[in-house]
Design a protein that fits this description.
It comes from Saccharicrinis carchari. Keywords: Carbohydrate metabolism, Isomerase, Magnesium, Metal-binding, Phosphoprotein. With 237 residues, the chain is an alpha/beta fold. Helix 2 crosses helix 5. Strands 3-2-1-4-5-6 form a 6-stranded parallel β-sheet. It is globular and about 50 Å long. The protein is built from 11 helices and 6 strands. It has 2 domains: 162 residues, HAD superfamily/HAD-like (Rossmann fold, 3-Layer(aba) Sandwich), CATH 3.40.50.1000; 67 residues, Orthogonal Bundle (DNA polymerase, domain 1).
Length: 237
Amino acid sequence: MNADFLGRRIIIKFKNINMTKIKACIFDLDGVIVDTAKFHYIAWKELADEMGFEFTVEDNERLKGVSRMTSLDILLSIGKVNKSEDEKLALATRKNENYLTYILKMGPEEILPGTKAFLDTLKEEGVRIALGSASKNAMTILERLKLTNYFEAIIDGTKVSKAKPDPEVFLKAAEALGVQPDNCVVFEDAEAGVEAALSGGMKCVGIGKADVLGKAHLIIDGLHQMNMQKLYALNEK
């Protein structure tokens, strides 16, 4: 057998073995697949206005990727407001009711650029797909976007007890898919989410600004910049 031909076969075989390391992609929802941050901000600001303090867009960045009750605690700390546990539950419920009025008006046009194309490519390549989101409204949002069928596993805020940066949501997603954590890539737009992915032993693609997501293995502006070549290149990082 020709030595050059044999060499090429070995290289191709090695590449194929290497590429199979990444078997699943786990996506955060808000800021990755759809931009609901604007609706969260409006709903939280309504609560802050009621309590008589300012809540800015910059303040809202601190709430990305964390649970509703943790977000409320951050909001109350900004306003230096103390509330009982019962009062907190009532405030969180009211915020969610306000938020739902906005997301129930959403449609597929709200899907961020490149998302469907990349999800389609993953399916064609046989890469497993899951959602790992702190949102308790994830199913409602996916249904409004008509994206539910893309995800083999959906782990949201109703299925976890620990907020990011704890890796619980991503580890449960990997478990639901039957894939080991080190074979998973997480797509996140929040610092807490990046920390969660890394502490869970997964690769992470940060979507957003490098000064916030600097620990991610790869940083992009959005899924419109993602492709299989970049995905498989994460094996080397």
